[in-house]
Amino acid sequence: SGGGLLAYGESVAPEEIITEKKKVVVLGTGWAATSFLKNLNNPKYEVQVVSPRNYFAFTPLLPSVTCGTVEARSIVEPIRNIFKKKKVDVQFSEAECFKIDAENKKIYCRSSLNNNLNGKEEFVVDYDYLIIGVGANVNTFNTPGVMENCHFLKEVEDAQKIRRTVIDCFERANLPDVSEDEKKRILHFAIVGGGPTGVEFAASLHDFVNEDLVRLYPGIKDLVKITLLEAADHILGMFDKRITAFAEDKFRRDGIDVKTGSMVVKVSEKEISTKELKSGGEIKTIPYGMAVWSTGIGTRPFIKDFMTQIGQLSIISCEQASRRALATDEWLRVEGCNNVYALGDCATINQRKVMDDITAIFKKADKDNSGTLTVKEFQEAMKDISERYPQVELYLKNKQMRNIADLLKDVKGDDKKESIELNIEELTTALSKVDSQMKFLPATAQVASQQGTYLATCFDRMEECEKSPEGPLRFRGEGRHRFKPFRYKHLGQFAPLGGEKTAAQLPGDWVSIGHSSQWLWYSVYARVLHWQRGGAR
């Protein structure tokens, strides 16, 4: 019988009989999840991917899809192509997770189709590890009328719908017996949000209208208007001021009406109401034909439920309920859960403060228990401190200090570095300002992609690092952390401004604006598209 075959030692190695693959469930097919799948190489895992979208979309090019500069099919890749040649066992289910049961390690899913293979619309998946990479919803800030009357730009379908609506607006305005005032309203395109997405869409729409549509609809070309609404004082607030100023000036020269200090408070079928923050909160109404909302990101409903659940299960994570995203530690583990990880737009890293651990740091560094730290003692612990608390390194860099000795000298005066000794109070003073360098990571594809790659590397080396931890010293507790914490490396950011001009801001305070930056933008995105598809061919 089949069972008898197992009696022979030569037939099956003992470890093959007892070894069972760990089940990894991945939620999502966006930047974070896809990067994790592409870089996971350990065949000891069984992977189940659950997502209502069976493809990866290169979202930075969505504004280009809205105006036909790029075809939708060129920025998507079937998710099965990405993992079909991998040694890891990966299965995909086109479904949406609507509930996570962290206590029992189960997720509850609803088929995106009519039913699944068993004829049921809902099913349950067990997991050993759960990777949450579902991205975020649009944040309407509870503004009345936004969901009912605005377009969004999060998915490929959104971009295609916007393109159809733009054409429809021109066709409606071109009909006979439509008054000139009505034509102006129909051909008024309002974009809410002066971030990278809103700015790029405004630029793409301007080029589309002036290079293509005016030739097809010459009789109404002078009635077209594009307005960009931003509540802050400037658009592209996360960019260098030189880029912000150039973008605003270029848009005004192009005829794009940039309204800063305009906060949208209501959207009806034909009008947008704004509160003018620069003029004492005056309410104004703007007639429009199409509105695109591209400001802020919100939390998906089942993630909100999960955050509430975590608050009930663990004291550690009771602050989750007040957040817009899942709080994780520096290893991307969801706080308050075992074996649950979150990355990308649905998560935020809750960085540890140096001041919270200053006593533990001092005790760990003071190896001779003398009650003071020498420069040598501190330098020996410095590598672990910098790995565990990245804000220390940032602080030294911003203060133009070469090393920790310069920081200690700053506290102790002109004593010789070798003779400096600090007690706990002096160490606290020396490090009291380093936590000011802590920043939340931006919700970008760049961050999500790096997090996915990092987590895949951790999973590949999980067993190895359990035996030989390679992370920083545990200042609270014994031994070392298994892995080095996630460290984001900012590679720069781009803002296409239309007319073959792009603004680029790269590390080292390097700013470039013009045609050369446009080609740099093209080359970077072409390289990333090749990266996403290269392993699947």
UniProtKB/TrEMBL annotation:
It is found in: Mitochondrion inner membrane; Peroxisome. GO terms for molecular function: calcium ion binding; NADH dehydrogenase activity. Residues 353-388 form the EF-hand domain. It catalyses: a ubiquinone + NADH + H(+) = a ubiquinol + NAD(+). It is a peripheral membrane protein. Pfam families: EF-hand_1 (PF00036), Pyr_redox_2 (PF07992). Keywords: Calcium, FAD, Flavoprotein, Membrane, Mitochondrion, Mitochondrion inner membrane, NAD, Oxidoreductase, Peroxisome, Transit peptide. GO terms for cellular component: mitochondrial inner membrane; peroxisome. The keyword Ion transport does not apply. The keyword Membrane applies. InterPro entries: EF-hand-dom_pair, EF_Hand_1_Ca_BS, EF_hand_dom, FAD/NAD-bd_sf, FAD/NAD-binding_dom, NDH-2. Belongs to the NADH dehydrogenase family. This is EF-hand domain-containing protein.
